[in-house]
Design a protein that fits this description.
The structure holds two protein chains of two kinds. By secondary structure, chain A is α/β, with parallel strands linked by helices. Chain A contains 15 helices and 14 strands. In chain B, the strands form three sheets. In chain B, strands 1, 2, 3, 8 and 11 form a five-stranded parallel sheet that branches. A five-stranded mixed sheet of chain B has the order 4-5-7-6-12. The chains are: A alpha/beta, B alpha/beta. The A-B interface holds A 280-281, 283-284, 372-373, 375-376, 383-384, 386-388, 390-391, 394-398, 400-402 and B 20-22, 24, 312-314, 316-318, 355, 358, 371-372, 374-375, 377-378, 381-382.
């Protein structure tokens, strides 16, 4: 057996305080890493508490005050060291806001609230100084932890942690691996925040190796950030199996089939393509209902567009959904659609497939690179999108195939396998 | 003297264009003309024409020791006619040498042999006429789509007038036996069966340009050497492959065309083999044994079974929806509908829906116009939906017409006139409705009704009887038939009522 690899990981949230995709991915990866002879020292900014207090607290996992309440984490406690830093560096506005979001087992909140946060900072200037300050302070913390601990590789997730990663690298001389989950272009389209972009660019260039969540994201890093293609490796995300399979019984009170969109209603998610496809289908077949679940800055515009097309009796907006309501929506959904314009990975289709729902996804999503049992179309190809949805609604052999094999496929995407690839990247970085 | 049997398959499907669901009912043009034309043009230039030229010069050079055989699917004929007529000319030149045999197959390169015997016979008939027309040859050897074969199919093929049939020398049907002999069908031993030697065939068709292969590069001399090492007691080596092997699957740069031009001479001179056609072999060789093939085989993929075309949910659904139209199409006389019906049966459409290609990728992806089997299925089903609509429309207009004839009003018509009009209506009623009606009619009553009816009318109604009713009808003695005027008109009225009911309840 080879030597145990010790990892200093700068992450984001950790259970039970998970609010979105990045947290879920970090958690899944960490659990996966545990199965590959590694030791993880996880550093997270604490979401609440007194900023003036002790800056760094290295928590022994066996101590009572550890925030590890999730049952399945206890078994990893022996190899996982967990560090919380009291810090403003958090997507949450305040304790009240935090409590609200914490309850959302949400796919979207993370990015959603990050956007809100950033927007506020951009407009009010009140949090702006703090945010960048916090990033800097987190970096100092990183350096100080790095100087005091023993490890083989530094591992940082997305832009907020990059500076900490760089500082730790300078302090320790150990290799830095950064994991690119999303870029500023995914969050903001073409209106990128220059400061954020700069931090991302620096982090990607300073890293010894970069892990991208998809080839799609890898290409963005190469083309938009000028990163050397040889040092970016794609490792696709996986999906955590549900703790237990709960049979969701949801009565459908109408006979029409249901086509669902679930995500932030923003430019990046392509909601207007969904609406245009809905119109093409309803022109031919009125026995379909369309559901747009989520909220976002384009919501009002979408509501107007639906009204303008005169299909409001067949097109429904649910607003923001959370927890069980999502499962209930999937339970009555016949086809799930993710027409994203730009999607570094995209975990929602996997959750739909886990609920036996056939999916149509855009080719511009990272997840389309790994899925077989999904129909893939270009987000702008509204006719192709409509045709794919129609096919799944009308040709039973196809939807049966998807619902059966799709579930099987998703159940076989394991974090353990993704983590194995990550470990290979570590080894490569250490050997550099 | 031992024989080599060189046989080449030529087939290209009419690929469908991207056909969206909102085209259903509007657009009845299904084919991607641009793609089909450019593929045929390209293969003609890269493969068919140069390879034909080589074969022609070999025939001149080597004389009667060199012969080859081809099967050209009806759909390939149609496409050559449309896009590359010079290819047909070049095949005619080959045919004129008298040393080239053209085989029979289904016109549509279809899977009809598995599903619909009547349709199969019809397609074989049409294809046979094409071979006669283009090459003035009577095909005596049969090659089913993708070498699909079973005992049952073989027996059926013999009934259609063929002497010899080709199929795959699959390991699981041969067991310890060698493919290098003449075999015969297990149901009807009069049909002789030639089996593909897949090792030697695939050395050329698949491995020729594979640099990782230990035998690469394959030269004419090396191949002739392999043949000389074949067991001296064995009779024939069957090399069956796609003709596109030469210049398209294997590019000219790999040296495949040079191989084709050198190999025959080397084989004849160095290994003592002679090239013969299946029909020659039929006359020369006696079968060494029956070949038992209770389960259908083909030459596709590792499994050599039907799973490339049928078996997954989508393929089965498309296949059964397509053949559900058989009964209606049988009587259809609309040329455009018939032509689409045949083109939609082409096996390639089902091949594109194969989900195995995730593993057996290389071959299945070749010329596959779809990014995945799911797109293939959706597109095909959209087209098929439109086609079914057209068939239904065609039928409902015929149905309305025939209904008006059999229910013509009494007013102003004498009993005789009425009778005539009504009975002539029967000739227009589609058979599917007549068949339904005849299920409710017993033989004796039919015989009464047909008393003094026209021959056309008799034939038509009798042909719609089920097997048992037909036996009953045939064995009726004239004495048993009540021909009283009253009984005849009662029986006629009964039959007409049944037909009306059948027309109504569709």
């Amino acid at each position: 057996m080879s030597k145990k690899i010790k990892i200093l990981m700068f992450g984001w949230e950790f259970p039970p305080h998970i609010s979105g995709g990045l947290g879920t991915a970090c958690y899944g990866l960490t659990k996966g890493l545990m199965k590959h002879n590694t030791e993880v020292h996880f550093v997270v900014p604490k979401a609440y508490g007194d900023e003036d207090g002790e800056v760094v607290r290295i928590v022994n996992a066996s101590e009572e005050n550890v925030a590890l309440t999730a049952e399945n984490l206890r078994e990893y406690a022996k190899t996982l060291t967990f560090t919380e830093i009291d810090s403003l560096l958090t997507p949450y506005m305040d304790p009240v806001e935090y409590e609200r979001i914490r309850e959302e087992v949400s796919r979207e909140t993370r990015l959603e609230s990050l956007r809100q946060f950033k927007t506020k900072f951009e407009f009010s200037g009140k949090y702006g100084a703090n945010l960048m300050e916090e990033v800097a302070r987190y970096a100092m913390v990183g350096a100080s932890i790095a100087a005091r601990s023993e490890f083989d590789v530094i591992y940082a997730h997305d832009w907020l942690t990059y500076q900490a990663g760089i500082a730790a690298r300078e302090a320790s001389g150990k290799p830095l691996v950064v994991h690119l989950h999303a870029t500023e272009f995914d969050r903001s389209g073409e209106n990128v925040n220059q400061q954020v972009y700069e931090i991302e660019r620096k982090g990607l260039h300073a890293a010894d190796l970069v892990i991208a969540v998809s080839h799609f994201t890898r290409n963005v890093a190469i083309e938009r950030y000028g990163v050397d293609p040889d040092k970016i490796i794609t490792v696709h995300n996986a999906v955590e199996p549900p703790a237990e399979e709960i049979e969701i019984k949801q009565q459908k009170h109408f006979s029409e089939k249901v086509v669902t969109f679930l995500g932030r209603i923003t430019y990046q998610k392509g909601p207007e393509y969904f609406i245009e496809a809905a119109r093409l289908i309803l022109d031919r077949d009125p026995n379909v209902r369309f559901v747009m679940a989520g909220s976002g800055d384009l919501m009002n515009k979408m509501v107007r567009r639906v009204a303008q097309l005169g299909m409001a009796t067949r097109f429904h907006f649910t607003g923001f959904l959370r927890g069980q309501n999502i499962d209930r929506l999937f339970a009555i959904t016949d086809v799930f659609v993710m027409p994203s314009v730009s999607e570094p990975f995209g975990i929602v289709p996997l959750e739909a497939m886990r609920s036996n729902v056939p999916v149509v996804i855009s080719k511009q999503s990272g997840v389309s690179e790994i899925l077989r049992h999904a129909l893939k179309v270009d987000f702008w190809d509204t006719e192709g999108l409509a045709d794919a949805i129609y096919g799944l609604l009308h040709y039973k052999a196809l939807s049966d195939t998807f619902s059966h094999y799709g579930k099987y496929e998703v159940d076989n995407l394991k974090w353990e396998n993704a983590a194995a690839k990550v470990v290979e990247v570590y080894k490569q970085a250490i050997a550099l | 003297m031992k024989s080599v049997c060189l046989y080449f398959q030529i087939h290209q499907p009419f690929r469908l264009k991207t056909y969206r669901f909102f085209d259903i009912g509007n657009d009845h043009q299904y084919y991607d003309e641009y793609q089909n034309r450019s593929i045929i043009r390209r293969i003609a230039q890269k493969s068919y024409l140069p390879a034909n030229k080589i074969l022609l010069s070999l025939i001149h050079q080597l004389g009667s020791d060199f012969r080859v055989s081809f099967s050209i699917s009806g759909i390939a004929f149609d496409q050559f006619e449309m896009y590359a007529p010079e290819v047909l000319d070049s095949f005619r030149q080959l045919a004129a040498t008298g040393q080239v045999e053209f085989l029979g197959e289904t016109n549509a390169h279809s899977l009809a042999s598995l599903k619909d015997e009547e349709e199969f016979r019809e397609q074989v008939r049409v294809h046979r006429e094409k071979v006669r027309f283009y090459f003035n040859q009577e095909p005596m050897t049969f090659r089913n789509t993708e070498l699909i074969y079973s005992d049952r199919i073989g027996a059926m093929v013999y009934d259609l007038g063929f002497q010899t049939m080709l199929t795959e020398g699959a390991k699981h049907i041969l067991g310890w036996k060698s493919p290098n002999y003449m075999y015969c069908n297990a149901i009807n031993p009069k049909l002789k069966v030639l089996l593909r030697n897949f090792n030697l065939s695939d050395d050329i068709a698949f491995r020729f340009s594979e640099k990782a292969w230990s035998e690469w590069p394959l030269t004419a001399g090396k191949f002739a050497g392999w043949l000389s090492r074949v067991d001296p007691r064995e009779e024939v080596v069957n090399l069956f492959m796609d003709y596109e092997t030469f210049g398209e699957h294997q590019w000219e740069e790999t040296g495949i065309l040079r191989f084709l031009s050198k190999m025959p001479e080397k084989v004849i001179k160095e290994s003592g083999f002679v090239f013969r056609t299946p029909s020659q072999l039929n006359e020369m060789l006696q079968p060494v044994s029956m070949i038992h093939v209770p389960n259908t085989v083909s030459w596709a993929d590792e499994e050599r079974d039907l799973t490339a075309w049928l078996g997954n949910e989508m393929q089965d659904e498309a296949f059964s929806k397509l053949y559900a139209l058989s009964d209606k199409m049988r009587e259809c006389n609309n040329v455009q509908l018939l032509s689409d019906w045949r083109y939609l049966q082409t096996s390639d459409h089902f091949y594109y829906m194969c989900t195995k290609w995730f593993s057996d990728g290389e071959v299945h992806k070749y010329f596959n116009p779809y990014p995945s089997p799911y797109e293939a299925f959706i597109n095909y089903m959209n087209v098929l939906s439109d086609f079914s609509l057209r068939v239904d429309q065609h039928y409902s207009s015929r149905r309305r017409f025939s209904r008006s004839l059999v229910t013509i009003s009494e007013e102003g018509a004498t009993a005789n006139e009425k009778d005539m009009l009504v009975w002539s209506g029967i000739e227009v009623v589609p058979k599917i409705y007549l068949k339904k009606a005849m299920k409710q009619v017993n033989a004796a009553s039919l015989a009464s009704a047909l008393h003094q009816a026209t021959n056309e009318c008799k034939e038509r109604l009798v042909s719609c009887l089920g097997r048992r009713a037909l036996n009953e009808y045939v064995s009726l003695s004239p004495l048993e038939v009540n021909t009283s005027e009253q009984e005849v008109s009662l029986a006629r009225e009964h039959i007409l009522n049944q037909i009306r009911a059948a027309l109504k309840n569709d």
